[in-house]
Inverse folding.
């Protein structure tokens, strides 16, 4: 679920002026007559953090919103290009060959 | 038609031929010419129709041939037989046996079997086996090539595949492609070719490569390799989802190729072992386990976000991230407690937060105020005011909190001095805030501080000239002032107040009221005749009917202390006057307004007396909307005019036999005093309550329930149960009484007749004792038995009351006194 900061595409440290600018920018992209649902989302997000009290309230009364998928992405991210050698290829083939599915290459229906 | 006939002839001829062959085969067999017999059978085997439809027969012939001929001939026949059938089950079994053999690594047996395989078998027949054999030879056992038919396509393709692999080692892509081109589509090494091409394209697989890789079937030895290649190019969540398809070795190979480090491999292994979707606990534990790799800045918010679904993780959060942060520990626990709807605990934790913030210094005042307001929002209503007031100590100019506090004040019956001072301060702080001024006006009015109410209302109008609430307050107060002035003969002041009122933009009704008061002023303070004329004009100019005119004039004259009769005389006569629907609506609205504004029942009663006769006539003769009548009845209840209420209820009940009117009739007949309610009326209300519940008429359900509750408080319960049980009014008891004598005798009586009988029974019960009743119902009989039964079975008395009431009201219930006696076991 997106936070008001995500919706307005501002950092969590953004000032009131920055938030307002971001709000206006988003409203331009999603005007109420063209995209009423999204406009409402943007507007509600703005109202909740437009002033200092709103931002402070948000900080005090919500728990963070983080996605576990992001953890997986970070953990399994690799900048290296794939290192595919002949040994790797052979190893993959060997591993495939060792797979148990070769014990029954035909289904029961085919054998009847 | 001709063509069909020709086709039929051909089929017939063909069938004939088969029969001939069969006959000839049998004939050869009988004459001992076995080789000829077998030849005939072979002919049969060339016909696919024979094979499919006559398998059993052919097998039978084969069996015979085997018995009679040498093994070589039999094998030849069998081979042809199985060839014709193609991939029949025997062939498949053979393939499976060969595959298993390969996997068994029994080299001697493998060699022996491979040496027996023909080109046709390896290239065309045992396709799956070829594929597996090829993969085995490429990876482990190239030496098997020597046992295979050298001229077979399999061997040729194997050589190309091997060369492709060698070129791969030598990093010669062009050479690889050259050799791969020699492997055709139908080759046993087709899947190998697909894999190799995909590897050449890595890391950017085209759509076509991906499609071909996905086409490799599950029983291919290259299937997992293909899956691995596809997985290698995936990232993040997609890669993670694919991990479960591979065993640990495969995952390691993929991790090698992707260049994952030790921690990443460990993570992948952990993830692969867990079932998807992961629980919050599993996610949490993974995050904690790998926090050093991911960084605290990332892991901390993730763990906090998981706490709502895994609150047990709080201790780990505290130990890992919040060791020295008492505020955050309490904050998180407060939010978790709120989520658990444990408001008491939440409050405790928030109070701890406030304590920590207060200890840190004045810079946290706003946070404290916000927490207090948050508490006000979650705590019960009785505790909200205190929190809000407290919050203002830390953040005094919060308009929302002030409004909330004033709302609470509105609900208080009486404000003390401190509350009033607070309200004044709020207005000083926000002198032009409409909400605050509106609440202040309302509060002042409620506390009978009309002077202040007027001041606040006028302030409101200065800020918002169209504010109707403020106008209404001003009009009400000024009208009250004018009436008082007129009563006390303070004519000039009355006039001042009238002039002040005229400066406001009034609604139509308000203007008419002011006009009337001005006319009264003229009557009382200037010229009586002119005043009377103005009074008439005040009504006629607004086209108000005579009945409404009389009523309003009577009301206002009373409230202003002016002679009612004199004023009413000048108005048009009420003779023959009937209220139209609009006029009746006006009357109801006017009465409602007077009820809400004044609460002066005596004046209202007197004013209604003036118009009672034409009003009743109008109610009798005209058709008014039921809702309007109900609104009128509500007003009549408030002013306790039960005579009119009774009149309307009786009329309305005939038109609309709904729960509302039964209720209003009871209200009217009991003067809205449950103590005066009889048992029968109570029973009638209970019956209507059941109906109202069934029809989901919640408003009337509420009113009935409230009345019944008051009735039960006023009356002991025990006397009721007997009657209720007798007539099955209590649903729970009803089931028990289902087969009782009362139900058996009177269960058929319709509800509306029952209601009438109830009423009559109430009257009779007051008049007739059990002895008298028995004497009347059974004249000339010895009633001692009946009376003694009545002592034991009170239902008998009730049953006889029912008979008497039915007789009196002429309601046919088809139950005789003999039947009643018989039901209670009394023989006549």
């Amino acid at each position: 679920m997106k936070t008001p900061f995500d919706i307005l595409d501002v950092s969590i440290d953004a000032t009131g002026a920055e938030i307002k600018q971001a709000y206006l920018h988003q409203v331009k992209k999603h005007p109420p007559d063209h995209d009423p649902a999204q406009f409402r989302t943007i507007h509600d997000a703005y109202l909740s953090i437009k002033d200092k009290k709103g931002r402070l309230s948000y900080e005090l009364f919500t728990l963070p919103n983080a996605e576990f998928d992001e953890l997986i992405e970070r953990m399994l991210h690799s900048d290296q290009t794939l290192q595919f050698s002949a040994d790797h290829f052979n190893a993959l083939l060997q591993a495939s060959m060792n797979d148990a599915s070769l014990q029954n290459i035909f289904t029961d229906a085919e054998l009847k | 038609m001709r063509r069909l006939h020709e086709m039929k002839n051909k089929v017939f001829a063909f069938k004939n031929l088969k029969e001939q062959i069969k006959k000839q085969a049998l004939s050869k067999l009988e004459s001992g010419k076995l080789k000829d017999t077998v030849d005939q059978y072979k002919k049969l085997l060339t016909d696919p129709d024979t094979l499919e439809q006559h398998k059993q027969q052919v097998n039978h012939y084969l069996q015979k041939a085997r018995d009679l001929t040498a093994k070589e001939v039999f094998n030849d026949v069998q081979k042809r037989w199985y060839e014709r059938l193609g991939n029949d089950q025997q062939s498949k079994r053979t393939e499976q046996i060969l595959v298993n053999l390969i996997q068994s690594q029994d080299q001697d047996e493998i060699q022996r079997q491979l040496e027996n395989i023909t080109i046709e078998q390896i290239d065309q027949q045992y396709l799956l086996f070829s594929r597996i054999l090829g993969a085995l030879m490429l990876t482990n056992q190239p030496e098997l090539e020597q046992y295979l038919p050298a001229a077979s396509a399999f061997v040729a393709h194997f050589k190309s595949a091997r060369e492709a692999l060698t070129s791969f080692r030598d990093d010669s892509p062009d050479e690889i492609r050259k050799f791969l081109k020699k492997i055709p589509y139908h080759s046993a090494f087709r899947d190998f070719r697909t894999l190799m091409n995909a590897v050449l394209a890595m890391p950017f697989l085209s759509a076509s490569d991906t499609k071909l890789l996905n086409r490799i079937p599950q029983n291919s030895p290259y299937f997992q390799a293909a899956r691995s290649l596809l997985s290698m190019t995936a990232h993040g969540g997609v890669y993670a989802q694919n991990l479960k398809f591979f065993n640990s070795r495969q995952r390691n190979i993929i991790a090698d190729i992707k260049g994952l480090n030790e921690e990443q491999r460990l993570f992948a292994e952990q993830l692969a072992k867990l079932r998807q979707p992961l629980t919050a606990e599993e996610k949490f534990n993974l995050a904690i386990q790998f926090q050093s790799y991911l960084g605290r800045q990332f892991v901390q918010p993730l763990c906090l976000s998981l706490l709502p679904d895994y609150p047990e993780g709080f201790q780990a959060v505290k130990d890992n991230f919040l060791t020295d942060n008492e505020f955050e520990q309490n904050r998180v626990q407060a939010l978790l407690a709120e989520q658990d709807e444990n408001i008491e605990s939440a409050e405790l934790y928030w109070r701890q937060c406030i304590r920590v913030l207060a200890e840190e210094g004045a810079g946290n005042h706003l946070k404290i105020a916000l927490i207090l307001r948050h508490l006000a929002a979650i705590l019960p209503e009785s505790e909200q005011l205190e929190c809000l007031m407290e919050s203002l100590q830390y953040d005094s100019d919060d308009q929302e909190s002030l409004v909330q506090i004033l709302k609470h004040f509105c609900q208080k019956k009486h404000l003390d001095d401190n509350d009033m001072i607070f309200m004044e301060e709020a207005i000083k702080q926000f002198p032009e805030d409409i909400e605050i001024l509106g609440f202040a006006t309302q509060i002042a009015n409620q506390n009978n501080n009309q002077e202040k109410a007027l001041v606040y209302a006028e302030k409101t109008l200065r800020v918002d000239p169209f504010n109707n609430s403020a106008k209404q307050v001003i009009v009400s107060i000024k009208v009250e002032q004018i009436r008082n002035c007129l009563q006390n003969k303070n004519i000039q002041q009355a006039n001042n107040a009238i002039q002040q009122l005229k400066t406001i933009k009034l609604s139509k009704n308000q203007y008419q009221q002011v006009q009337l008061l001005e006319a009264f002023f003229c009557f009382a303070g200037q010229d009586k005749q002119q005043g009377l004329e103005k009074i008439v004009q005040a009504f006629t100019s607004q086209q108000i009917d005579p009945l409404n005119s009389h009523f309003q004039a009577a009301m206002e004259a009373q409230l202003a202390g002016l002679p009612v009769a004199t004023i009413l005389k000048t108005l048009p006569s009420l003779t023959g006057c009937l209220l139209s629907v609009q006029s009746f609506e006006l009357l109801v609205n006017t009465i409602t307004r007077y009820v809400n504004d004044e609460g002066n029942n005596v004046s209202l009663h007197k004013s209604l007396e003036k118009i009672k006769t034409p009003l009743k006539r109008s109610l009798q003769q005209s058709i008014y909307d039921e809702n309007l009548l109900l609104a009128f009845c509500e007003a009549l209840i408030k002013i306790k005019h039960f005579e009119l209420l009774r009149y309307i209820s009786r009329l309305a009940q005939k038109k609309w036999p709904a729960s509302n009117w039964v209720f209003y009739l009871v209200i009217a007949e009991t003067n809205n005093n449950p103590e005066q309610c009889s048992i029968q009326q109570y029973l009638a209300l209970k019956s209507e309550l059941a109906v109202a519940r069934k029809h989901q008429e919640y408003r009337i359900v509420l009113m009935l329930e409230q009345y019944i509750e008051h009735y039960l408080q006023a009356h002991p319960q025990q006397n009721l149960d007997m009657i209720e049980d007798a007539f099955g009014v209590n649903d729970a008891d009803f089931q028990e009484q289902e087969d009782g004598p009362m139900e058996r005798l009177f269960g058929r009586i319709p509800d509306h007749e029952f209601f009438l009988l109830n009423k009559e029974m109430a009257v009779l019960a007051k008049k007739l004792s059990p002895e008298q009743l028995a004497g009347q119902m059974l004249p000339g009989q010895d009633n001692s038995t009946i009376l003694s039964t009545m002592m034991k079975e009170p239902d008998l008395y009730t049953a006889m009351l029912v008979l008497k009431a039915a007789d009196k009201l002429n309601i046919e219930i088809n139950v005789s006194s003999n039947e009643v006696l018989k039901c209670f076991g009394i023989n006549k």
Q: What stands out?
A: The two ends of chain A are 53 Å apart (CA to CA). Chain A has seven helices and no strands. The first helix of chain A runs from residue 4 to 8.
